[in-house]
Design goal:
Strand order of the largest sheet: 2-1-3-4-5
Distance between the termini: 55 Å
Radius of gyration: 26 Å
Structural class: alpha/beta
Order of helices and strands: EHEHHEHHEEHHHHHHHHH
Largest sheet: 5 strands, parallel
Number of domains: 2
Length: about 325
């Protein structure tokens, strides 16, 4: 670069998270336009620990706060650093990117950081994608500091991500976690399945409805297997538990009253899934997988039945077993 200006980035972290933060420091340091500050790399023997860290925080252009369950519950230096960082952040203009929360695992965000958008540096397979987003934030901060310089223009060119193939975009769409767009897309088959299930039960619709119900049930099951997430909120979980249980009972003995109840709880599940479509979701491995198996079984059954195919292995027994497993695991997630 023709100019030697760099953005100074302080890495606020707990000692137990040192291995991950050390790897992040090495990547940032290799960029050429970022000057990261890590205690074990910057502190010299005999220097005053408190004084040097305080000076580094005050001199920083941006601060990456690494968050984990251990760091947020542990009393110690990170709490002191965080208080200092947030006090300095109050002096910055509103649009300044100064504090960047970086979650190293699924953990609570401290109250004073909740107004700032965080990024998840997990799981391992997503770190490269997350790191590129982190670079983009730091690049914006660099341009805020040096808006008209040649150095800022060079970082703009370096930060541009390479164009992705259609296959890579499809992989990102299916495998990415924690992004609102994908969460919403994954909820759509679930919403459509419950709406069609309610329509089928309450109105005794034709085979076309049954076929569509089967297709969306299979799609919903596939997304649940891949994403391992279900819509949040007790209303959705309780109504889905009731739907699974009543559906299993209806396979054993037909009852007009129970069929009406099945349709009602299906509508409630549909409505609650719509309301929470864009809400943050957390991984729930066992209940999401069991619900996925339940939906896949019902989807295949409904699809076959739409073509007047009624396999003997789709008896009430297997459906009852997977229903009980699904109910138990979803109750545990309440």
């Amino acid at each position: 670069m023709t100019e030697t200006r760099k953005i100074r980035v302080f890495l606020c972290h707990s000692s137990q998270d040192k291995p991950i933060v050390r790897e992040l420091y090495q990547r940032l340091n290799a960029e050429g336009w970022i000057d990261p500050w890590l205690d074990e790399e910057k502190l010299l023997p005999g220097q005053d620990w408190d004084l040097e860290i305080e000076k580094a925080v005050e001199a920083a252009d941006a601060v990456i706060v690494s968050l984990s369950n251990g760091s947020m519950t542990k009393e110690g230096y990170i709490q002191k650093e965080l208080r200092k960082v947030l006090d300095i952040a109050l002096e910055k203009p509103e649009e300044t990117i100064f504090v960047i929360p970086l979650r190293l695992e699924d953990c609570e965000i401290p109250r004073r950081l909740r107004a700032r958008q965080y990024v998840d540096y997990f799981p391992v397979e997503r770190r490269e994608q997350v790191y590129q987003r982190l670079r983009q934030s730091l690049n914006i901060r660099f341009q805020q500091l040096y808006p008209q310089t040649e150095a800022a223009q060079e970082t703009r060119e370096k930060i541009k991500p390479p164009a992705k193939s259609m296959y890579a975009r499809l992989v990102d769409l299916v495998s990415a976690k924690g992004t609102g767009t994908v969460d919403t897309a994954g909820t759509i088959p679930l919403i459509l399945y419950f709406s069609l299930a309610a329509l089928y039960v309450l109105t005794s619709s034709d085979s076309t409805n049954q076929l569509m119900m089967g297709i969306f049930s299979i799609l919903a099951g596939i997304f649940l297997v891949i994403r391992k997430q279900i819509p949040p909120g007790s209303i959705f979980k309780i109504s889905t538990i009731l739907f699974v249980g009543v559906h299993a009972l209806n396979n054993i003995s037909d009852s007009p009253a129970s069929e009406i109840f099945e349709g009602i709880v299906a509508l409630i599940s549909c409505g609650s899934a719509i309301v929470t479509a864009r809400a943050p979701k957390r991984p729930v491995f066992y209940s999401s997988i069991s619900l996925a198996l339940f939906l896949l079984i019902l989807g295949v059954k409904a699809t076959l039945n739409a073509f007047d195919i009624y396999p003997s292995f789709y008896s009430a027994g297997p459906i009852a077993i997977i229903s009980v497993i699904t109910i138990v695991l979803m109750v545990m997630d309440l």
